[in-house]
Give the backbone structure.
Amino acid sequence: MASSSPSLPLITQASSVFLELQPSSSELAALSLLVDQGVESLPQVLIQISQSAERGLGYTDELARLFFILFDRAPDLSTYTFAMNLLASGNYSMANVCQLGLQLNTSLLSNSLNLSNSQFVNKLANLMFTSPSSVDGLPGEIQYLIGQLDNSFMTRSQLLSQVLSYDSTSLKYHYEIEPALDYLAVTGLPPSQAQLVAAQGVSEQTLLRQVMTSSGVSPYGTSPYFSEQHNVLTISGNFAQSLSIDMSTKTSMLGANSSYRLFLSTDGGDTDSSVVFTPAILSGIQKIDASALGANVTSFSFKAGAGGFNVQAPNVPSTLTGGVGPDILSAGNATTTLVAGSGNETLIGGSGTDTFYAGQGLTTMTAGSGADTFVLPSISVFSQFNAMSTINGFGSGTDVLDLALLVGNTGAAKAATATVGSSALGSGFVNTAAAVNGSVFLVFDTGQWVNYSTVSFNTRTATDISNLFYTATPSQNGVVGPDGLGPVVFAKPPTVGAVYFVIDYNAFNGGADIWYVNNLAPLTTVTQSEITLVGHLAPTGNLWQALNAAGAITL
């Protein structure tokens, strides 16, 4: 019957790599139970196996060294297992296994090369050491071993089996044995030379975790892994539950459990231990990187506290909420909701379908490559907190500018039909006379503003926006606009408190400003005091086209 333990197959494979004499099925089951219950991590159990006394009783390391000498590579599982089984049977000595290796034509010391004893020993030395002549005492040892072969005091296979027990940092492969066996234990495949080089200086715990993660194996089963270094918390794991972190209360939930078990490292990943979550784990943390969470995680959420946080979401559905800031909240490659807090916030989209909510401070939002939605807050937020929203990269995907909260719509936003026109009176001028509650005017600023005689691409002001609503001549009610123009004659009688939006696209720099217009008494005019700048769209190569796309603006 197949085992129901998810960790048992890998533990069994690791045992076959590290140990000549295999543990009993009950011993293997006990080890897998420790992993499955979150008492120990999978890397910890594999290290227990690799460092056990039983390893020293067999020929694990000698056999691994044989591969580097004869084939200049790490062992492959099938050949390695075959040789290990021969040794475990008791019918083959290490010298017998060496003899089989020397008979292979692919061996660098193959009998088929017809090497003399002197050639054989010197080549063996060169396969073992980078510079044999610089190794203290080695030249004399080489001459001694040549003499042993010449006088038939030992065979080449016996000589080879003897040198396999020698270990020193001067050996070419000294630092490659353990990584080679770790890769073989986890993946069943030999590492490449590049992988062996990358493993140098990496602790075995860290290496095992990296190899498992890259192979799609969860090192920590159904438990999260927290690695703390200074004020940075890195979170990984591939558990099939949601994970939430609230820095304002220093609390966390795994699914519905606030006292869940996790693996915690406080030394950058070299060691870890199984602990129950406590608020102290989050103390002093200012940056959280959850990008390594696996695809099985159902969702991730984060809420900032005071002091400013930098958070990277994983590639699973996520919600990141800012605090008093300044915070930097970055989406992953899955659907993410980014909510600015009361401070100066930076919200960064990913390649998923992200929704941005601007906040009470200065909110900078950067679109990702997905279809993103940017929601501006209600006008009360702007008036009470002097808020401002800047959007970078609008149009990178099929993006939406959501102005619904500015017209008091807290339900589902609907696509707005914008009135498009020029800023120059008499040259395709935008028809502001068509204004009704909820109107959106897209104005292409050509540099000539209404009836001004001077061409200028200066940033427009509330007065400039007000002047878009002065096109009638002669002036009405004694109110005079630019060059003697009077207030526009609205096609439909305006209502008190009607809200219009003007998006002024600057043809010179490619950016645009978003203006909120609230028509109060007298209704026949739109004055500077009724106009508020609520947002800025930074220049992008296709901003004008993006704003004109169907459904690009919603109310």
